[in-house]
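Hey team,

Filing this mostly as a record. A colleague (T.K.) asked me to run one chain through the structure pipeline before their review meeting, and I want the input and output archived in the tracker in case anyone asks later how it was produced. No errors, nothing strange. Just documentation.

Input sequence:
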Amino acid sequence: MKKTIRTALIDTVPVLTGYLVLGFGFGIVLKSAGYGILVAFLMSALIYAGSMQYVAVGLLTGGASLLTAALTTLMVNARHLFYGVSMLERYRGTGKRKPYLIFALTDETYSLVCRELSHVEESQRINYYFFVSLFNQLYWIAGSVAGAVAGSLLRFNSEGIEFALTALFLTVFLEQWLTAKKHMPAVLGVMLSALCLLLFGKDRFLIPAMLLIALILCLYREGRRDD
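Output structure:
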């Protein structure tokens, strides 16, 4: 167990650096909107939705309706539907930990638990999934609370700080690119996303892109099986 915890801790170091910065930015943005440290902690502990938490700040300050909040959440986090489907087999037999593993399946956690895990013993895979998920959420909570604290003590212009989210996604993509042996899925993802961006615009391209990527990758996978 100790070896598994140490492995999970080492593997999540890249996420640690990203989540502390990104969570810090969220805490500052939240504080600048008039919400306190406790709200930052509760949102990161109970919602834990990364980009959606940034969006939620605007929804809260703008007085959005419950329906608007629900539809916006669906649009922003629709990609997690595909994450969940692809993790059905890996999370089979996880028992009481399954609800938390589902709740904590962020983009960065997904990138770590869905890859080749030859460095983790087969009997310890479930423990590895759990500790990777737990460590990543703790990093996010720590960054959010620290940002809220800094926002309450310091006064500065926070405009543009949410770009940390884009930077983290780029970091995860590059890490996957460098560690993966096959780059065709990544290339397809970028090309199809760019195509949908041109066709549907920046406000509507996400769901069509995810649907198209899922379809093409399924066909790509079946084609390789036939070979």
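Quick notes for T.K.: The chain has one domain: 2-161. Residues 2-161 form one domain.
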